[in-house]
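User: Please predict the structure of the protein below. I'd like the answer in structure-token form so I can feed it into my own downstream comparison script.

Assistant: Understood. Taking the following sequence of 193 residues as input:
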Amino acid sequence: MEKCASALVPRTLGAAVLIAGLGAHGSAFAVDYLTAAQARQLLFPSAAQWQDKDYTLSAEQLQAVARAGHVAARSAGWRLTHAFDAQHKYLGSVVVDQVLGKFELISYAVGVDAGGAIVGVEVLSYRESHGSEIRLPAWRHQFTGKTVAQPIKTGDDIALISGATLSCTHVTDGVRRIVAMLAVLREGGLLPA
């Protein structure tokens, strides 16, 4: 018997407990920062009403997303949360997504206003051992105000963070994909007016 985590457990059980607590690549750094509901409130603080709506993009729409965003569309199914003010005016939409960092998934939310400009990006969960600096306001603020007309690309208008290169790149690609998807839906008259 060996003392492990302040309790007496067999050596093999202690190792199993340790391994079970680690991610697929030995990462024990998973941190949940916000829920989706908290993120949407931060992104649209004046919203009085929320409406969840599922969208399924056609093959033609997926191609339009890839052209507009210069990134693979990845998925036909999307859940959007639309924000409305007290007078039922559409403020914009929030999309929660996940991308792979280096080894683990990063969960984040993107708010895009009714005109197609990014109002903000919030990191919900970060599971990598390094690179959590993408959560810092200075990095996330680089997206604010951008539309599908801007590159939204690391190295061009979004800075890379040393030690978080893949996380920066993958989140940036994900944000660009979301902005392009919302632009395609807006052009198709599928978003609230």
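That's the full token string. The CA atoms of residues 134 and 168 lie 7 Å apart.
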